[in-house]
Write a structure and sequence with these properties.
Among the domains are: 42-92; 173-318, Nucleotidyltransferase, domain 5. The chain contains 12 helices and 8 strands. The protein has helices at 42-61, 64-68, 74-87, 106-119, 123-132, 140-149, 218-232, 256-263, 280-294, 302-318, 330-334, 354-360; strands spanning 5-6, 21-24, 27-30, 173-187, 190-201, 207-213, 237-240, 267-270. The strands form 2 sheets. Strands 1, 4, 5, 6, 7 and 8 form a 6-stranded mixed sheet that branches. The protein has a two-stranded antiparallel ribbon with strand order 2-3.
């Protein structure tokens, strides 16, 4: 990877994720993680017909009791016998229940497919993005049906959520963390080691600040923190992990970071050891930053990386819909800034589709 690179020597089993697709006979296999061809097949329908015909034959030749011993209910057996008498084997085929699902317009299906390829958004986010950006009002169930038909269904096993909490208003609790080292690739054999420090509001998930640093030292971090306080106010509490430069280095003696917070009358909270979910708001943000920026863009200098992070921070706060916020932006919850984007303007991976989308939409 040529962009800001994580230190894979610390995590040798890390696998880089790529947003790819494959074409197969008669289907498009999108965004390969968890994708699969449609499960319904002619062989499965044939097995159902064989089973039903066998139950009907046994009921006719050996009696109803013998057919019920095969595991079929009495109501189903009666229904199959009536249908077989009226229409033969063809009548034993599966009949769709309920109203037939309505298909999305062709241009919407095409737009959803292209956006899925470029972003790998799930069905709920696709529906929210298309609806709130006033492209087309979508229900996520309709998107699910489309993705299943294309062979893109994700695994159905749900992941258990860990302990969660949320403060009641902005600036009550901020989360701070340092991530790295990352490497800026100046040339083929010239790398520069850097770290990224981030600050997230707990209630709104608003990104208070994001800065790239050549060293994870307290001085530059506190100077950056002072800028964040001037722009967004002072929190009641600030949570960090137990890494340097946040924690005390001797019982009863505060670090420079700790003394600064004490002077500001900001309560310093520390996570439990080996419990990153305690600081989960900022940890989740690092995953978003990795997948949407660091795995996609190439930065040759620290200044270029700083510009890229600043652009993403603005998009994250004001234009990126957040599932935990009921598909609102962090800025809407932090200070009430309205969401004004229409189409895919200001979405980094989709802004080049704006003209294509306008031409695709019916007049």
């Amino acid at each position: 990877m040529d962009a800001l690179q994580p230190d894979h020597r610390k995590d040798p089993h890390r696998r880089l994720l790529r947003h790819t697709y494959q074409e197969g006979p008669g289907f498009l296999f999108l965004a390969t993680r968890g994708g699969r061809p449609p499960t319904e097949s002619a062989e499965l329908d044939l097995d159902r017909v064989r089973y039903r015909a066998r139950c009907v034959r046994i009921a006719r030749d050996e009696g109803v009791a013998a057919a019920l011993a095969m595991g079929v209910s009495r109501a189903s057996l009666h229904r199959w016998r009536v249908r077989y008498a009226q229409g033969g084997l063809a009548a034993l085929l599966e009949e769709p229940r309920g109203p037939a699902p309505t298909r999305l317009p062709a241009w919407v299906e095409q737009a959803v497919t292209v956006v899925r390829l470029l972003t790998y958004w799930n069905s709920k986010r696709l529906a929210a993005e298309f609806t709130r950006r006033e492209i087309y009002p979508l229900d996520h169930h309709a998107v699910d049906r489309l993705l299943v038909g294309l062979g893109t269904a994700r695994p159905s096993q749900r992941r258990e959520r860990g302990p969660a909490y949320e403060r009641g208003r902005p600036n009550e609790l901020w989360h701070i963390d340092i991530k790295g080292p990352f490497f800026v690739r100046r040339s083929a054999h010239d790398y520069e080691k850097t770290w990224i420090v981030g600050l997230v509001d707990d209630h709104s998930r608003f990104l208070i600040g994001l800065r790239i640093l050549p060293r994870p030292q307290a001085g530059p971090i506190l100077a950056w923190l002072d800028d964040c306080l001037e722009l967004c106010g002072t929190p009641l509490e600030l949570m960090s992990d137990n890494g340097s430069p946040f924690v005390t280095w001797m019982p009863g003696v505060l670090t420079l970071f700790g003394r600064t917070l004490e002077e500001l009358r900001v309560r310093h909270l520390r996570t439990q050891v080996n419990s990153p979910w305690t600081n989960g708001k900022i940890e989740r943000f690092w995953g978003v930053l990795q997948s949407e920026v660091l795995d996609r863009e190439v930065f040759r200098t620290i200044d270029a990386a700083a510009d890229g992070l600043a652009r993403f921070a603005a998009y994250y706060n004001y234009d990126r819909l957040h599932g935990e916020l009921d598909w609102h932006t962090p800025a809407e919850r932090f200070d009430g800034t309205p969401f004004t984007a229409r189409g895919f303007e200001r979405v980094p991976t989709l802004d080049h589709l704006q003209g294509w989308l306008a031409a695709l939409m019916p007049a």
